[in-house]
Predict the structure.
Amino acid sequence: MNSEIIAIGSELLTPWRQDTNSLYITERLNQLGVSVAFKTIVGDRLKHLVDAVQNAIGRTDIVVIMGGLGPTEDDVTREAAAEALGIGLKRNPDLIAQLYTRAAARRMTMTRNNEKQADLLEGAVVIENPRGTAPGQWLDIVYGKHRKLLMLLPGPPSELKPMFDEGCMPLLREALPQRFIATRVLKAALIGESAADARIAPIYTQYTDVETTILAHLGDIQLNLVCGKPNLALAQARVDSLAGKIEEELEDYIYSSQGESLEQIVLYYLEMRGATLSVAESCTGGMIAERLTKISGSSRSFAGGAVVYSNELKTEFAGVDPKLIERHGAVSREVAAALAQGIRKRCHTTLGAGVTGIAGPSGGSEDKPVGLVYLGLSDGDETEVLERRFGGDRERIRHYASQTALDMVRRRLM
């Protein structure tokens, strides 16, 4: 079965408010084996809401509507749902009494416009809201020739989340056939989305019962594998089978098979090998260290290092010979190697990494353009240097440099 989530509120169509409820509802629906096919955000206009509900009820089995159940003039979710479904609304006296009792217990005067929160769709079951005034509503109806489940929920997360867990989840479990969703997340570093897809599309297209989604990030792609089956073990076996074949095809581009970040994997390999790392960063300005130290327990393997932006600090902190800088320039293969070797010795670590480059937008030349980065990695016996030319703005270049440096460490430790 598939579903649609409709988030209602004109404020959600501005730059200042974001719908986060749908992420929570999606997670809960997935636990029941229900896929979310559509997410819609609609402002507080009756006609637009009616259209959205009609579209949703026509194309999905389950519709979750969030928001617009309050007492104000722009809270028209109930009216929109009634019009879209062609059913009536009736004011429930028991709910009105509850509203007045609640207000009296708080020594508040309840204005008459609050009574609209007691308007129920024909055939609706009330979902209690002990944390707010607007009750939710549940409808199990036949629309056309098909069974549809419709839920109306308040917008505030503090009300919606417990209401969905305590009120909707039991009703959904009772109404739906048992189904389970298994997922896997694979991550690959420094391979383009199109290049990866060209290699793995012949594989995943053979798994018609597994939904495969490729998401591209800076220097990284994420492969989401999702399969729904009546049996969890069967669903998991299908995604695991596909994941295994993708890993075989992409080989060492794949750094994570359970959704871990690249920095988590680097720290895992360092600890597994009993190794330590230090870094000397110029153009990345501490980004590598920041990414590693975000992970709890990183101090067991990451010793630290230095941001060596000036030539003087390249010499003082990483021991780079000033004559080397003068001869080859601060952005050079030779200086990257010296940074890696020098910081490793200075910090007494197993590995040392050094990065130097031109992040822009100024500072480039014909010989050394913006985006040119040299990355060094040394273990004492061997020093490797990569030359890369990254495109984009300053932040993108810096991120790609940090990603490449971390991947160098991963590959060395593998």
